Each structure stands twice: as C-alpha cells, then as structure tokens.
C-alpha cells in the first residue's frame, strides 16, 4: 500500500470554508501547494484526505489566486468538514482515491451486465459512506434506468438500500403503511389515514419526508401541529402507546441512500421506475411494514403522467413487493388538479384539521381521497373489505374517533398546536369570466414555493377554484400567503408572468 | 418568460474567489441572501446568472458560515468568472436555469431512443457553451456507452463534435494524419512519422494533445524542442512552407467538446468505444485530414487490453470513417511494454532526436515502430505500398532527409532547442538477479508522474531494461529523474511500495 508522507509541506492544516456543496465533500488546495505538484492533482480529481482518526474521499478544487487559504492550509466544504471532523491542529494528508469497488460494478452494469445483490450492496454502501461523487452516482442511476433492471435486480437494490440503514421490527403480524408517489399539491391524506387506521386498532408506524421539490412534505405539514423530529426510541414509544405515529423519517437513518439518489435524479430530471420502486419499498421495508397501500396520482402535470405509466409502475412495485414479502395494494388516483385548498405546510394542515374535525367547510375532495386510501388500508389490514371497509373508515371519521386518535398521537409526539396564518396575503383575481378548464400542478407549486413554502411554514397559497367551476372576472382564483412583503411580491411577479396556472375557458 | 428582479436585494455584486472547479462554473451565494430564500435555491441547484452582456448556467454552492462573502456579493469560480466576465460594479441577477434541450435528448437516449444528428448537435452545443454540469455530461456518456450507439449515431456524434469547433481545409486532395490510441509510455512516434512523411512530400498538418493522464503527451514532448502553441494562422503558414507541422491542438478550438467529454469519462474511468471513435475521428476531420493511420497498442496494461477489443474498436473506427469519407488504416501493435527508454517530456524527446539523427544508441524499438507507421502513412498517401513503402520510410530516415525536415519544421514553428536534463537522478536497482518477465505500463507511468512529469519537463524516468532481458542483482532497472529532491523522494517512495513495476522472474 502506498503511503503519503505525513510531514509538512505534504500535510496541511484544515480550514472550514463554510461552503455547502450539498452532500459531496469538496476540498480546496492551493495551486502552489507541494502536495498538488507532487501528486499531480488537478481540479476535479477525487482524492482521499487522511486525518488522524478518519479519512474521506473528496472532490478537489484548486485555488488559483486570492487569499482564501494561507500556505499550509486546506479548505474544507461543510460536507467534508462534518465527515472528517478534524481538530484545528490536525495535519491532513492527501493521496489519489483508490479505485472504487462500487464503480467497477457500475461499469459492469453500463456494459450490460446483470448485478447481483452483493454488487448493489457495494454501490449503496459507498454512496452512504460518501465515497461516490455525484458524477459517479449519476452513472449508476443512468446505467440502471430505461428498463435495464430486471425485477430481480430491483429487488436486490431494494434489499441493499434497506440493509444500509436502520430497520424496525414490530411484534404484530400486520403492520400497515401508505405511500403517495407524489406530485400533487395539497394531497395531504396521510394524517387522516393514519388517524383512522390507528383508531380502528391497526398498527401504523408512519414516517414521512420533508419537501424536496414540493411546497410541503407531510413532515413539514405535521410540524405546524406537532413535533415530528423524533428519534427511533421516541418513535417506538409513541407507536407502543397509540398504535401509530406520524414522524419525519429523516432522523431515523432508514434507507439513507435514498435521499442521495433522489438528489442526483433531480439534477438529471430523471424518473427511473426501478429507482422509484426501490426507493418506496426500501423505506416501507425499513419501517417494518408488512402491508402497504400506494397512492399513484396520475395526470398531465402530476409526477405520473399517463394511465399506462401508472400501470407499469404498479406492476413493478407489485413484483418486487412480492419478493420482499410485502403485501401491496396500489390505487391509481386522479392527479389532474390539486387536492383541498391549501398548498404549503400550515395551509395544508388547516385542511387536514378541518377534515378530521368534521368542519362544515372541510374540503370534500381531500376527505374523499383520504377515505378511499383508509378503506384500502383497512381492507389490506384484514378488518373489512369492499364497501364495509369504506363505511368503517367514514364512521371513524364521523364519530370523532379518528380526530381523538390524531390528538392522542400528537400529544404522545410532544405537542398539539394550531397552525399559524401568514401575515401577508394577496388575492389573485380571475382576468376574465369563464370556466376553469385546467390547473397546472407544477406552476401552482412553484408559485407557492416562491411565496416562501416550505421554509416559511405559513406561506403558500389558498386555492378557491377547482376544474369545471365558473368564475366571474375579478373573483379570486387563489390567495398568495407569505411571511414577508418581498416574497409576496416575488410570487406575484411569477403569477403575473404565468397566466396558465389556472386556465380559464372564456365560453 | 419569467423575469428576475434587477434591483437589490435580488441582484448581487461579483466577487472572484480564485477557485478552479475545472470547466464547470460554480457560484456561491450566502444562505441569508434574499435571492436564495425567494427563489428557494438550494446547494447543487443549476441556476442562470444574468449579467448585463452575458449569462451563464452555474452550479450553486451556499455559504452557511464564515466571511467568504459580504452581504450583497456573489462568489464566482474561475470558470464562472471567465465565461461571464463581469465588471466589478455589475449587478448580477439569478433564476433557476431553464430546462435544457440537450438533456431531453439525453433522457430519450437513456430510455432507449435512437438520436438523430440534430440531437447530438444540441448536446454537444450545450456542452461547449458550458451549459451542462458534469453530472449531466456523465448521464450523456453512460447513456451512449455499452454498445447503445449504432454506427449511424457514432457518425452523427462525430459530425456534431466537428461542427462545434473550427475546421481546417487544405487545397491538396490527400492530407495524411496519424493517431495513437495511447496508454503506452514512450511510444512517441509522431515527430518521426511526420518528418518522414513531409520529407517525402506528403501533406501532414499534425495537431497533438498534451498529457491528460500520462506522463507526457506529444505536445509536451515537442515543447522541449520547439514552440507548439501556434494559432490557426501560424500553423497554416508552417504547413504551407514545410508541408507539415507538429503543434498543440488545444489552442485551435478543433472539436472543443472532446476535452470536456474526456474529463468526465476519466472521472468515471469509463472507456466507451463510441466516444473514443467520435473523439479520434472528430479531431482528424476537423484538422482536414483525408487519410488517417491509427496505432492501437494492445496489451494487458495498455489502454486496449485484448486483441478482441482492438478488432472491435478498429471495425467501429472504419465504419464511421467511411461515413465521414475518411480513409482509415489501423495497426494493432504490441502494447505489452514501454517503447524507447525515456518516459517524460524531455526524456522522450531525447529518444526521438536520437532516432531522427541516426544515433548508434537510438532505441531500436521506437525506430521500428515509427517506420511501421510511416510505411502505413506512405501507403495510404499513395506513394508506395508494401515493402517498398517501408523501404522508402527507412531511406528517408537513413539519409537524413527526415531529420532535415524535422529541423525545418521546428524552425518554422519558431524554435529548435536541445531538451534539458533533470538535476536530480537516482537509479532503481534490481532487487535480485533474474529475467524481466513483464513491465506494468500503468505503474511505470505513475512513477514518472510522481517524479514530476509532465509539469516538470525534464522529469520522468529512463528505462534500462526490456521484457526478456536478464539482469544482475543491483543492476539499475531504471533511473528516476526529477527537478526537486522532494519529488524524487516521492517517486522513490512509490517505487519501493510497488515492486511489480518491473517484474523479475528469478529463474
């Protein structure tokens, strides 16, 4: 094994640059540093940085001019700093990163090989350990996209993703779960479904994600009502006392590769069915679920755009679920327009609370979709089937038992509060009289994000119309909600330049 | 079209960070910048930076702490700075980068589509304009690798690469060229072949590259003897007066996408036949060549490792060359051990000069290989064929006409000097008596690089043995040459830890 010399000038002192390069560790070396010349390092090389206790693999940037670094210093990005955790006087050493085992598997896949489970374990392991660059992760994703993965490979990938993180297990034989493929603003059924299922005695240890590209994730929405950042032990206590939880999965370290893969998929705007199946099923398996309902909203501006695509995805999910001994039921649902009224964490939370509390003005579309999914969970969980399952769900909502269960879960999680309301609001009026012909989910989500969602938790928008409704000129189509005048103006500017967000047919 | 607001706090002043991120432009924004919050930018987003005269697409990094940037400033990497060229008081604006046309073609290719020439033009155009990130370029490379490109697609890609840069044309009907696939240290035949061909009256406007991963490129080697950084007009004058040139291609802007693609291929350690064919042929077509000889060294530690791989590559080269109306002759040559004695720019230059000057101790293997290639060029150029071509080449070398042509070309290029000699030298002795069984090209190249090649132009190593020769214990296998004691020590350390560089069979 080659050894890097430890003494100056070949070892350098760490300097935290404060630069967030996301998950990829980056280090900056001065062009005139002896180690750069001796090793023949150039910008974008992958190098190993060796500290006394830890080592990382990082992408190299080279300082050509300026005073960012003193001689004898190496700059570390936030990801490099957090992974290496160097002392301020620790002398860091450098060498070219060894060839990656994972990448030899990726190259085999690029050249048409079929990968075994061990190969997927190696790739996922190196991704989780931060040893693969985004460029390398992109190569893995592309090599596995476009129908190049057999059902067996998808299953192996899913297993590898589960093994890379923590896995929960429950004594009960039936552990239900639900998941929505996403892409539909306001489709916040999870808190309602969990409350109904748990009120009926089903075990539902639900973890949810925060928004990645959307104006709100279920975890963001629930955070306006309760605590969601529980650790594994706290989550287990909630589930043991209430039969269910509604927490953020990010703190659990379940399927930790998934987030990294999704980030790189987004950089490529690549939707790979194999990756989606592995992503969904790995999280469900890691949570210890045995029976899973999948909501696949389908529509021209949703994530899944056609019935054919939805069917193909559902078949792939079912094939791998069988291999993983998960029972899976998929619902292909209407994804043509947003659900409920609110878009944004607190705004969606208000909708959820109104449905749970049987308010007279609760959004009926959200209520109906939540009941459809709850009925599927009930059926899969073995309580009732068909119309009887649906009636059981509706009854649990109507008699307040779902709401009481929701309150109990929130209290067990550590808080039950009323979501806030944004201080800056502005209606967006209909430019002319007409009938709402379609609503663009993507542009609407973008407007809500420009207004501040999800980082400003009361920001977003409140939709007043649905497809098929007639509006008069000047009648508000939706209200923008923001926590600052600047963000409100910014969202308004976007809305003015995108009249197609809500498309009105003049007839 | 969405418009980004121009006034503060949404516009920022540029600050040059001096950080070389290689070709990918990177900008750094403060986490508390209003534009980050309003746009919902996160680390690794692709954003468009709009100046008064130009705009670029850059990858975003976010400053989480520290004083790298003042409020109201945006940091620019070297690539971002050079592409945008902002004034110090220019207010820069920001928005999410528009969806890339190129990437929609890449996704189509990922999902199994066949791309037309227009699609390749779009991809190559965006790569050359710096609008695709490394992650996106990686997706393109992987989508096109592993036999997923038809011969027609390879030809289209080659044409797109030619169209993206400058293209030379020559009045002569026959313009010869040669190219080596690479991977073999010391295989520096180009200056000899060019001198012979030009001495015999063939037109050979040769452009060469600098080292990318090797201890020396042909341009690096020639630069120790003459000037190689000529522009197009200067190159044309040399060719018009001498019938040939030997210059660095990098200043010519011929096939500018090629270097960027190769950089990302290297990050992935991916050798794609389709990409290699397009890379080689696009440079030859851009240089105006009509007849090309390709040297394909084949051996276990060369770039092409098996005869089968060499044949496959040759067929692919010939198919696309035909479509591009290039006449191509491929020579599959022995790539099992280095050629000549020197490895490193000046060390290889000394070998080349000895062959051209008919020195008694000129390395015979280099001379024979250069004559083989010169004979192929002579045959393809229509002067002679078979044994007669070979004799013509040998005669031109023996009678000094090749050497006189070499001198004339160098003088026309602006210099003719003696290559230097490294001040620090150290023999590496045989650890025991035995027969040289094999030499590892890759490890040997690595040792030469650690000694300082190619940036230290006299650094590298001088090989004293070839496969099959018997050596006594303590007899030098090779000498390390360096320009500093530190680099010499560094290379020695590497050599001590890698006894397999020259493998001795004790029998």
Q: In words, what does this structure look like?
A:
- The structure is a homodimer of 507-residue chains.
- Chain A folds into four domains: 13-96, Barwin-like endoglucanases (Beta Barrel); 101-163, Transferase, Pyrimidine Nucleoside Phosphorylase, Chain A, domain 3, CATH 1.20.970.10; 176-254 and 270-413, Pyrimidine Nucleoside Phosphorylase, Chain A, domain 2; 424-505, Alpha-Beta Complex (Aldehyde Oxidoreductase, domain 3), CATH 3.90.1170.30.
- In chain A, 41% of the residues lie in helices and 19% in strands.
- The first copy, chain A, has 18 helices and 19 strands.
- The first copy, chain A, has a six-stranded mixed sheet with strand order 1-6-3-5-4-7. In chain A, strands 13-16-18-14 form a four-stranded antiparallel sheet.
- In chain A, a hairpin with a 4-residue loop joins strand 4 and strand 5 (55-63).
- In chain A, helix 4 (117-128) packs across helix 6.
- The radius of gyration of chain A is 25 Å and the shape is globular.
- Residues 1-5 of chain A have low confidence and may be disordered.
- Strand 5 of chain A pairs antiparallel with strand 2 (19-20) of chain B, so a sheet runs across the interface.
């Amino acid at each position: 094994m080659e050894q890097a010399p430890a003494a100056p000038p070949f070892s350098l002192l760490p300097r935290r640059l404060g630069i967030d390069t996301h998950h990829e560790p980056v280090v900056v070396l001065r062009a005139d540093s002896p180690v750069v010349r001796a090793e023949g390092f150039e910008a974008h090389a992958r190098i190993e940085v060796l500290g006394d206790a830890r080592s990382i693999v990082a992408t190299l940037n080279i300082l050509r001019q300026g005073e960012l670094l003193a001689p004898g210093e190496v700059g570390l990005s936030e990801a490099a700093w957090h992974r290496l955790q160097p002392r301020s006087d620790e002398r860091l050493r450098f060498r070219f990163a060894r060839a990656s085992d994972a990448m030899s598997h990726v190259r085999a896949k690029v050249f048409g090989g079929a990968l075994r489970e061990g190969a997927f374990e190696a790739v996922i392991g190196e991704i989780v350990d931060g040893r693969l660059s985004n460029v390398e992760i992109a190569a893995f994703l592309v090599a596995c996209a476009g129908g190049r993965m057999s059902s067996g490979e998808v299953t192996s990938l899913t297993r590898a993703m589960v093994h890379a993180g923590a896995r929960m297990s429950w004594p009960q034989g039936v552990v239900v779960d639900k998941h929505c493929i996403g892409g539909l603003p306001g489709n916040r059924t999870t808190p309602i479904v969990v409350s109904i299922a748990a009120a009926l005695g089903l075990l539902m240890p639900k973890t949810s994600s925060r928004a990645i590209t959307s104006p709100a994730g279920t975890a963001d929405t629930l955070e306006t009502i309760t605590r969601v950042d529980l650790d594994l032990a706290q989550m287990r206590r909630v589930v043991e006392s209430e039969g269910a939880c509604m927490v953020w999965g990010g703190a659990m370290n379940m399927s930790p590769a998934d987030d990294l893969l999704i980030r790189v998929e987004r950089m490529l705007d690549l939707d790979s069915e194999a990756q989606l199946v592995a992503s969904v099923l790995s999280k469900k398996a890691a949570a210890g679920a045995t029976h899973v309902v999948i909501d696949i909203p389908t529509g021209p501006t949703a994530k899944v755009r056609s019935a054919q695509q939805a069917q193909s995805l559902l078949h792939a999910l079912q094939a791998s679920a069988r291999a993983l001994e998960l029972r899976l039921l998929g619902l292909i649902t209407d994804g043509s327009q947003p659900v409920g009224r609110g878009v944004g964490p607190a705004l969606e939370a208000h909708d959820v609370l109104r449905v749970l509390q049987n308010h007279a003005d609760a959004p009926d579309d959200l209520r109906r979709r939540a009941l459809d999914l709850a009925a599927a969970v009930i059926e899969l969980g073995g309580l009732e089937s068909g119309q009887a399952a649906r009636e059981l769900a509706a009854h649990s909502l109507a008699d307040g038992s779902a709401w009481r269960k929701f309150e109990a879960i929130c209290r067990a999680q550590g808080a039950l509060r009323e979501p806030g309301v944004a201080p800056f609001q502005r209606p967006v009026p209909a430019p002319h009289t007409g009938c709402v012909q379609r609503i663009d989910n993507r542009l609407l989500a973008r407007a809500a994000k420009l207004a501040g969602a999800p980082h400003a938790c009361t920001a977003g928008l409140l939709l007043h119309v649905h497809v098929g409704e007639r509006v008069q000129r000047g009648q508000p189509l939706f209200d923008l909600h923001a926590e600052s005048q600047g963000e409100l103006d910014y969202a308004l500017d976007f809305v003015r330049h995108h009249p197609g967000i809500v498309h009105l047919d003049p007839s």
